[in-house]
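hiii so um. not sure if this is the right channel but i have a protein structure encoded as tokens and i wanna go backwards to a sequence. like what aa goes where. can anyone help
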């Protein structure tokens, strides 16, 4: 293994621009392909063989009406009014009737139903209906959701405020939030203070971002063909940033140490590669790229 790692480092150093170019093409190709395919993650999917999946399958066989996704509809009256008085009660009932006519809706339990549990608040100013759909949230179409939300006009016309909730309204679109941006900025400041060089501080961040981009592009592409959990992209980002920065930093630190010791310039990048037993040879990000960059950069000690 030590010989293999030594050769990988030597190859990356001798063919620096080739290695950098390959990773750039991989990033553009995989990330672009994932976006073009338009894959979406799923909040729910089947896991055969588990007890929870067996229970869901049994429920679908015995009581299919309760096996699908559901929508919560909340009504709020003006201050001081009660949902048990007119015109609010009639508007809620009429809206339930309209909801039952929507394709994909199996049943609607109004706040006034005998099957409703704690559906009306103690001050009678707020009530809740449950709309049962005929499939899991992953199978619910936008057309069905639009038709469901469109029925709110009936209750709103009577003066009620209407809000919809449930898993079917959860967004499965992955995006970078301000939290990740602040995390990268903080990591950059720490690395800059540690190394005292923008090049040395920026390289681990760049390598980590390339690895994360390739991983997320791959996840997006795969999700177009098979169900992928909605937590997968965020998990890939967290692990990719942590591992990418860690391994790139490890290689870079060894390279700087050998530079300070006056080691042969050709041997430094390949000897900076992690030894077997101490580090893995494939951390999940382009860890060969730091060795490529070492060929054109001399970092200050």
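sure thing!! here u go:
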């Amino acid at each position: 293994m030590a010989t293999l790692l030594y050769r990988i480092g030597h190859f990356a150093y001798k063919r620096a621009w080739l290695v950098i170019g390959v990773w750039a093409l991989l990033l553009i190709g995989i990330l672009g392909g994932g976006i073009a395919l338009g894959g979406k993650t799923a909040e729910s999917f089947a896991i055969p063989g588990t007890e929870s999946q067996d229970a869901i399958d049994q429920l679908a066989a015995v009581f299919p009406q309760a096996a699908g996704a559901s929508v919560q509809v909340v009504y709020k009256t003006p201050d001081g009014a009660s949902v048990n008085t007119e015109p609010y009660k009639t508007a809620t009932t009429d809206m339930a009737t309209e909801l039952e006519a929507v394709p994909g809706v199996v049943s609607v339990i109004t706040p006034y139903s005998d099957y409703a549990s704690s559906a009306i608040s103690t001050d009678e100013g707020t009530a809740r209906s449950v709309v049962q759909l005929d499939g899991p949230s992953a199978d619910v179409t936008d057309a069905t959701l639009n038709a469901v939300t469109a029925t709110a006009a009936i209750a709103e016309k009577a003066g009620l405020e209407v809000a919809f909730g449930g898993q079917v309204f959860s967004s499965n679109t992955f995006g970078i939030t301000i939290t990740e941006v602040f995390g990268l900025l903080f990591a950059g400041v720490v690395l800059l203070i540690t190394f005292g060089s923008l090049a040395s501080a920026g390289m681990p961040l760049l390598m980590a971002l390339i690895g994360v981009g390739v991983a997320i592009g791959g996840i997006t592409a795969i999700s177009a063909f098979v169900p992928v959990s909605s937590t997968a992209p965020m998990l890939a980002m967290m692990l990719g940033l942590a591992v990418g920065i860690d391994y790139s930093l490890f290689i870079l630190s060894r390279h700087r140490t050998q530079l300070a010791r006056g080691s042969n310039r050709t041997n430094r990048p390949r000897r900076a590669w992690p030894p077997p037993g101490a580090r893995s040879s494939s951390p999940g990000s382009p860890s060969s790229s730091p060795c490529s960059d070492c060929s054109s950069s001399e970092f200050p000690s």
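oh and Residues 58 and 88 are 38 Å apart (CA to CA).
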